[in-house]
Task: inverse folding
């Protein structure tokens, strides 16, 4: 879905980005949205103000933004306001030949209210899309210049007044729904003109009077007219210089990231083996007597593909194998390469392959592939979806493949650098440690894993924070700075994990030891997840005891039993929902609501919020826990088939309410890669 008509062949329209990081002109929003799935990074500077924005087009019609602003003298001379806020916009009308696109939006609806406002904006494109004209009406800050009595007052007198004080921050993080679209309203408008594919010009009439900045920071509001000139680059980035209210010169930069488009083209890996004729020497090299050892030609061929053969049974025309994927982010690619190796090494009488996928030693699913289909579809133009349609998928609560001698025990280790950031400390917006991390794992048998990780910080400033916790709740998270201050060599985790299958569609996990930075104890989990269904149900119970600040072997006195019941649902098209209900680390009860969007290449962006029985006042700054998170797969960055990725969670503030234990290897994420919803999304890699 697009919010604009098709573009002319000689002009590439670049959707203007406002200094707030959302679709817009300069100060003012527009009736546009970004291309679906776009992750937009932007920053803006003018005298005394810095804005850092992260926006995401969640659906074709809905976008969201997180903003971190640093404003000098907003609260008076010699002060600096560090402000965190969220925006949300909804495209309720798509542009047609006669009608503009129209967006209704909330700006700073969950922060201090420094930029708190609501708006309805409409944008129409002309001159083969070179010209975009915007008009709209705003409330809150967007109703502070040239304001008039709220037209919504015709519905109710309550719309005529707005009680909150702009930027006061007294109810930081609360959703003042009863104030949205209330108070005076004002009109705004402007245009964006694409001079050529590189250069564009923007002009706007702003309805923001900058009242607090004028009163406290010496800002001069000489005119409501702003203007900007932007230069675009081939990758979609642009640099902008703008004149603000006749008194300021500012600069903006933006960079769109399309999660569907990797930084490097995939396919860096070696090509998969081509299918050989059934009568070939490779197929006739089958030696039934040696196949149960780890040095057979079949095991070696799979090992060359980054796949471990853990078990095999051949009965008549059917071969059942159990494999462990050690290379590919997409399980479909593992299945495709396994099938071709089997076809090239098993005798011609074997016509059906049953491949058992595993995760942490558990069999998670069984995929049935026919040899005839592989041979018929290898070079078929529609081979991807046809091979998926002909494959069979079922649960595998018990393995049906005889274990190969020498599969266990296993030992792995690695040494790598690490970066541990901490964002939004009011005294220093960015803190981080950089150092070395050593990890090791010992697997004596299927499902049992002993693992640990130690860190040695080399440089950083996490230990320089001087802000003590002021929480009235047990300090289950707000003492995190003490862990940086009082530790040197750190045990990040040291655990024994056991993964098992209690029954059909059931998965189990038990973890004991030093579970995370701040807690050790015991964690148990049970998950119900049918292979072919979108719904999963889980339950987790933990006993957690707070670790000493030095992150070595000692414990403090605080301990607690926590637990959650969880519902997971795959809505399709990459949308994953999750609800967790239960008891949190501070003893509070409530629920966490999450929504993630995952692209077929594993790039993932999501948001969450938690509401518990802790009052907004007792919770403190932020009022309730909320944030956004994203994961960038390594193969998206490198193009090479490598598992894992870089993920982080951005919280406006970390408090003690709604805090959950950070346990590794929760079952839903462990098992879902081999389930049909995920396989279908990434089946295009079956033939890669």
Result:
């Amino acid at each position: 879905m697009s919010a604009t008509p098709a573009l002319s062949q000689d002009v590439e329209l670049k959707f203007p980005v406002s200094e707030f990081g959302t679709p817009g002109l300069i100060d003012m929003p527009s009736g546009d949205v970004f291309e679906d799935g776009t992750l937009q990074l932007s920053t803006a500077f003018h005298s005394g103000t810095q804005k850092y924005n992260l926006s995401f087009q969640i659906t074709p019609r809905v976008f969201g933004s997180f903003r971190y602003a640093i404003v000098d003298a907003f609260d008076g001379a010699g002060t600096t306001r560090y402000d965190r806020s969220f925006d949300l916009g909804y495209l309720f009308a798509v542009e047609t030949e006669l009608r503009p696109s129209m967006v209704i939006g909330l700006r700073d609806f969950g922060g201090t209210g420094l930029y708190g406002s609501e708006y309805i904006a409409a944008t129409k494109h002309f001159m083969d899309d070179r010209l975009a004209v915007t008009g709209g009406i705003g409330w809150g800050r967007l109703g502070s210049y040239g304001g008039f009595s709220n037209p919504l007052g015709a519905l109710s007198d309550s719309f005529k007044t707005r009680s909150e004080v702009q930027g006061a921050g007294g109810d930081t993080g609360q959703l003042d729904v009863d104030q949205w679209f209330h108070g005076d309203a004002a009109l705004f408008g402007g245009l964006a003109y694409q001079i050529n594919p590189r250069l564009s010009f923007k002009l706007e009439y702003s309805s923001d009077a900058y009242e607090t900045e004028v009163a406290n920071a010496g800002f001069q509001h000489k005119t409501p007219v702003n203007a900007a000139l932007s230069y675009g680059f081939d990758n979609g980035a642009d640099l902008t210089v703008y004149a603000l209210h006749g008194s300021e010169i500012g600069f903006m930069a933006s960079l769109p990231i399309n999660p569907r488009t990797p930084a490097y083209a995939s396919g860096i890996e070696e090509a998969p083996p081509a299918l050989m004729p059934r009568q070939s020497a490779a197929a006739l090299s089958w030696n039934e007597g040696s196949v149960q050892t780890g040095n057979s030609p079949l095991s070696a061929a799979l090992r060359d593909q980054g796949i471990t053969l853990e078990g095999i049974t051949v009965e008549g025309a059917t071969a059942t194998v159990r494999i462990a994927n050690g290379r590919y982010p997409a399980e479909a690619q593992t299945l495709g390469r396994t099938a071709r190796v089997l076809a090239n090494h098993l005798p011609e009488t074997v016509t059906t392959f049953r491949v058992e996928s595993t995760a942490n030693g558990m069999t998670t699913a069984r995929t049935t592939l026919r040899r005839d289909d592989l041979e018929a579809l290898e070079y078929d133009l529609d081979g991807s979806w046809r091979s998926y349609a002909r494959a069979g998928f079922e649960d595998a609560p018990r393995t049906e493949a005889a274990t190969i001698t020498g599969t266990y025990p296993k030992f792995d280790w690695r040494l790598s650098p690490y970066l541990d950031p901490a964002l939004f400390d009011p005294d220093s917006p960015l803190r981080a440690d950089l150092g070395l991390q050593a990890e090791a794992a010992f697997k004596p048998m299927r499902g049992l894993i002993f693992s640990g990780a130690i860190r040695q910080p080399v440089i950083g400033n996490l230990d320089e924070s001087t802000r003590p916790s002021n929480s009235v709740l047990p300090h289950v998270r707000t003492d995190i700075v003490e862990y940086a201050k009082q530790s040197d060599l750190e045990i990040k985790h040291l655990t024994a994990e056991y993964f098992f299958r209690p029954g059909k569609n059931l998965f189990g996990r038990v973890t004991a030891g030093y579970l995370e930075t701040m807690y050790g104890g015991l964690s148990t989990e049970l998950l119900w997840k049918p292979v072919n269904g979108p719904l999963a149900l889980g339950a987790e119970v933990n006993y957690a005891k707070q670790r000493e600040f030095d992150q070595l072997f000692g414990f403090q006195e605080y301990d607690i039993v926590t637990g959650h019941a969880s519902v997971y649902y795959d809505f399709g098209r990459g949308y994953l929902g999750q609800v967790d209900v239960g008891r949190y680390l501070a003893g509070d009860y409530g629920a966490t609501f999450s929504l993630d969007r995952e692209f077929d290449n594993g790039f993932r962006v999501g948001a969450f919020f938690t509401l518990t029985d802790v009052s907004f006042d007792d919770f403190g700054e932020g009022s309730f826990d909320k944030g956004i998170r994203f994961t960038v797969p390594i193969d998206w960055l490198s193009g090479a088939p490598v598992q894992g990725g870089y993920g982080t969670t951005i919280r406006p503030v970390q408090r003690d309410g709604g805090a959950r234990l950070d346990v590794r290897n929760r079952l839903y994420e462990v098992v879902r890669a081999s389930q049909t919803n995920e396989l279908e999304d990434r089946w295009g890699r079956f033939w890669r």
About this structure: The first strand starts at residue 39 and ends at 46.
